[in-house]
Amino acid sequence: QEAIWEEGIRVASALEAAGHEAYLVGGCVRDRLLGRELHDIDIATSALPEQVMALFPKVVPTGLPHGTVTVLIGESAFEVTTFRHETSYSDSRHPDEVAFVRDVKEDLARRDFTVNAIAYGTNGVMIDPFGGQEDLKRRIVRCVGAAGERFGEDALRMLRGIRFAAEFDFEIDEEAWRGILSQRERLQRIAMERVGSELDKMLAGLHPSKAIRLLRTSGLLAHAKESLYPPLPAIEGTEAGWHRLDRVELRWAAVLLLAGADSAQADDWLRKLKFSSRRVAEVSAIAALRGYLDESRKPIDRERWTAAVLRYGVKSAADYIAIARAFPSVDRSQWDSGVGIERADVWLREMSAATVKELAVRGDELVRLLGREAGPWISEELNRLLLLVALNKLKNEAQALKAEAKRHWTDQNV
Ligand code: ATP
Ligand code: MG
Q1: Atom of ligand 1 nearest to the CA of 154
Q2: From the CB of 112, is ligand 1 less than 6 Å away?
Q3: Cα–Cα dist 169/207, whole Å
């Protein structure tokens, strides 16, 4: 932490020694002032990209058109960007033109929020023309300049603003909030993938319920390019629940289940946000498992629960339990008397097999044992045995399984 910051200072000092200006800027300065962990260090400099490239032995021209060069030192990467300013955004997404400028203050003026527009000099002096330090103390997310204009230029900033407010538990300044309300239609211009990535950071962060509340009250997501249905759930005061879910996939499943989404809707949400098919499958399986429990006409007992586990997998079942513990209202199941999610968890852990692969007998062994021709009956039989094993009615041992298969097929064929 301290080491990477010091390394950043050395990069800036090297630029200064070559006659340029250089500052640590943006998220790293903000996070350091907040006492948060730093991830990446950004440096702003008056040096042009070619000059930066000439100065350091290991560089990658990561974003030359934007003036960005990545300087590699040991294991760390530093994004060094030439002071620049952006002119007119006719599409609410990309600046029409990027121009390099001489003055760090002009560079700071293009940044989104005051807390992200503080430059830290190698001598320890802050350049903070918009009062970012004051806003950090007051815990306020405020735009650099006129909010309506800034959100109009780049609609993603509205989501970023909500993300920062949630993550740091800050308030959104009044003008910024009005700016969001007046510019929210412009979210349409933003690629769904970028919307997804902001939402993902909000959910992965410290205060997902605050993020969801701000998203709901702003009505912002209703203006996304593709419609996301059902809308986000009203779930205030459940901060503790989020902290019990340590993987972001579980948090996504929780949001969607709280919103009342079924598996097709969960699938649709996450697909539209361009998440990996693995994540989509993982979350929609959890929703499908809930649907399966919901549609049971009888109260859910060990048999029904076990059938659900075999159908959707141990992982989905364990995830479902974790989510139901964090947010009890997610579990709408009509459990058999005296049964609930904790009992379901015990049953889950008692299952000695949950897939036919884990059975102590194989299909070809059944073929030999029963002297029948191979056919669909094999997998039926394996699944029948599996259910008995999963219910703890039969031991998962070759002897016992074979005896049961033999008994079953002899009875049937008398
Ligand atoms: P984090 O990395 O924690 O999400 P960050 O503030 O570092 O937060 P980055 O996306 O890494 O965010 O951007 C670095 C800096 O670039 C920001 O601090 C901000 O000054 C500026 N910036 C990033 N995105 C925008 C934007 N859409 N509009 C204006 N300035 C931006
Ligand atoms: Mg950053």
Answers
A1: 27
A2: yes
A3: 7
**Tens-digit pLDDT profile for the chain (414 aa)?**
789 999 999 999 999 999 999 999 999 999 999 999 998 999 999 999 999 999 999 999 999 989 999 999 998 999 999 999 987 778 888 887 789 999 999 999 999 999 999 999 999 999 999 999 999 999 999 999 999 999 999 999 999 999 999 999 999 999 999 999 999 999 999 999 999 999 999 999 999 999 999 999 999 999 999 999 999 999 755 789 999 999 999 999 999 999 999 999 999 999 999 999 999 999 999 999 999 999 988 999 999 999 999 999 999 999 999 999 999 999 999 999 999 999 999 999 999 999 999 999 999 999 999 999 999 999 999 999 999 999 999 999 999 999 999 999 988 764
- The token pair that represents 286 in the structure block: 């959890």
Domain positions in the chain are 1-131, 260-351, 356-413
Q: Is the CB of 27 under 6 A from ligand 1?
A: yes
152 lines ligand 1 (CB under 6 A): no
Q: How far is the CA of 155 from the centre of ligand 2 (A)?
A: 18
CA distance 268 to 282: 13
User: How far away, in angstroms, is 25 Cα from ligand 1 center?
Assistant: 10
**What is the interface pTM, i.e. ipTM, of the complex?**
0.99
Number of other residues whose CB lies within 10 A of the CB of residue 153: 24
User: Please, which residues have CB within 8 angstroms of residue 70's CB and are 6 or more apart in sequence?
Assistant: 59, 60, 61, 62, 77, 78, 79, 80
Q: Whose CA is nearest to atom 27 of ligand 1?
A: 157
User: In angstroms, rounded to a whole number, what is the distance separating the alpha carbons of residues 366 and 372?
Assistant: 8
Q: Is 150 in the pocket of ligand 1 (CB under 6 A)?
A: no
Homologous superfamily (CATH) for 1-131 = Beta Polymerase, domain 2 (3.30.460.10)
Counting from 1 in the atom list of ligand 1, the atom nearest the Cα of 157 is 27
**Distance from the alpha carbon of residue 229 to the mean position of ligand 1, in angstroms:** 29
Domain at 356-413: CATH code: 1.10.246.80
**DSSP letter for each residue of 41-67:** EEEEESS-HHHHHHH-SSEEEEEGGGT
Pocket test for ligand 1, best of 108, 116, 128, 195 (most atoms within 8 A of CB): 116
pTM here is 0.94
